[in-house]
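Researcher: Structure for this, please.
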Amino acid sequence: MREVRINIAYKKLPSEKWDDSEKRSFHIIDRMQLRGIGINNIKDAVSYGAKKLREDGSIVAEYRWYKVVYREFNLDQFKKIYPITLLFAEDET
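Model: Predicted structure, token format:
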């Protein structure tokens, strides 16, 4: 399995379809702190969680008690993950 890298900081993305924003970065950090979820929890959800593709191209991974909504970019050596938000599993997406 290729390495998964999580990027919660603002970064210019290698895509013309979706632009990153500082608002996303602040939002995901706030949601992580509020829900007590760390980078390793996000990696677990991306690696092992049940996934659903949304109409806007984002992916929802449900794992244990939480869901991670993210964008994924497959690069040569690794998979780059840009989390958008975190939810408790019973919350609607």
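Researcher: Any notable elements?
Model: Strands lie at 3-6, 50-53, 59-63, 66-74, 78-88. The helical segments are 22-35, 39-48.
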